[in-house]
UniProtKB/TrEMBL annotation:
<dbReference type="InterPro" id="IPR019165">
    <property type="entry name" value="Peptidase_M76_ATP23"/>
</dbReference>
<keyword id="KW-0378">Hydrolase</keyword>
<keyword id="KW-0479">Metal-binding</keyword>
<dbReference type="GO" id="GO:0034982">
    <property type="term" value="P:mitochondrial protein processing"/>
</dbReference>
<dbReference type="Pfam" id="PF09768">
    <property type="entry name" value="Peptidase_M76"/>
</dbReference>
<dbReference type="GO" id="GO:0046872">
    <property type="term" value="F:metal ion binding"/>
</dbReference>
<protein>
    <recommendedName>
        <fullName>Mitochondrial inner membrane protease ATP23</fullName>
        <ecNumber>3.4.24.-</ecNumber>
    </recommendedName>
</protein>
<keyword id="KW-0482">Metalloprotease</keyword>
<dbReference type="GO" id="GO:0005739">
    <property type="term" value="C:mitochondrion"/>
</dbReference>
<keyword id="KW-0645">Protease</keyword>
<feature type="region of interest" description="Disordered">
    <location>
        <begin position="1"/>
        <end position="22"/>
    </location>
</feature>
<feature type="compositionally biased region" description="Low complexity">
    <location>
        <begin position="1"/>
        <end position="10"/>
    </location>
</feature>
<comment type="similarity">
    <text>Belongs to the peptidase M76 family.</text>
</comment>
<dbReference type="GO" id="GO:0004222">
    <property type="term" value="F:metalloendopeptidase activity"/>
</dbReference>
<dbReference type="GO" id="GO:0033615">
    <property type="term" value="P:mitochondrial proton-transporting ATP synthase complex assembly"/>
</dbReference>
Length: 243
């Protein structure tokens, strides 16, 4: 979970008491009618969000690898269909809405390109998991925990520089600790479960999900690592095509 970012607001129903259980309270624009293009174009936040999103999709190796992997898995991502720039409550940065297969980007809270890169990557990992696996986002907290572990581990959320920016400095096993803590926070943000329940779910699946490095094949600790992973992924695809 990106700093100030909610886990996926996954919900089959968006009304009544169940809405709060699935985190939709953090994404109020999910329940509003779409605005006209003219109205949306008047808002600087929306324009800035769209420009930063395009920059991420065109140039960020984390996002490019995930988009290619999803395409190969039969889940091609389209900018206009699968991304939505919206206003969000609090300091939430983004989420994955599995009910609509959309990534929500909080246009009022994402102000820097580097932040957009991390949020898009984090949520694309959720979308990739949704595409490749039968994830029960609604009833199985361990499924949610697994995807949150993977997102924190592979998106760059827990890089040394990001942790230093949060005034958290390295200790032995620091990366694993960061991944675990952020996964727990993500669950608590969108599920009405106790901290003990969230911790138990994360601990039970941590080893398996932390070591599931698809589609990167490695933990990309930097953009350079991500570029290498993307190149390896493309070469792997060409190799498999020639078998």
């Amino acid at each position: 979970m990106e700093e100030g970012e909610a886990a996926p607001p996954v919900a089959e129903e968006k009304s009544g008491e169940e809405e709060d259980d699935f985190g939709y309270r953090l994404f109020p624009d999910r329940n509003k009618k779409p605005q006209s293009f003219l109205v949306r174009s008047l808002f600087t936040f929306h324009n800035r969000c769209q420009l930063m999103l395009r920059m991420t999709l065109d140039t960020n190796p984390y996002a490019q690898l995930l988009l290619e992997a999803m395409k190969q898995s039969g889940c091609t991502v389209f900018n206009d269909r699968h991304f939505s720039c919206e206003n969000c409550d609090g300091c939430v940065s983004g989420g994955f809405d599995s009910a609509t297969s959309q990534i929500v980007l909080c246009q009022n809270n994402i102000r820097q390109q580097s932040h957009m890169n991390r949020v898009v990557t984090h949520e694309l990992i959720h979308a990739f998991d949704h595409c490749r696996a039968h994830v029960d986002w609604f009833k199985n907290v361990k499924h949610l925990a697994c995807s949150e572990i993977r997102a924190a581990n592979l998106s760059g959320d827990c890089t040394l520089m990001n942790e230093i920016a949060r005034f958290k400095f390295g200790l032995k096993g620091h990366h694993q600790t960061c991944v675990r803590d952020r996964a727990i926070r993500s669950i608590l943000a969108v599920r009405k479960v106790s901290k003990e329940t969230a911790e138990k779910a994360v601990d039970e699946v941590f080893d398996a999900c932390f070591n599931d490095l698809e589609p990167f094949g490695r933990i990309p600790h930097s953009k350079t690592d991500a570029k290498r992973a993307y190149k390896d992924f493309q070469n792997r695809d060409r190799y498999n095509a020639n078998l």
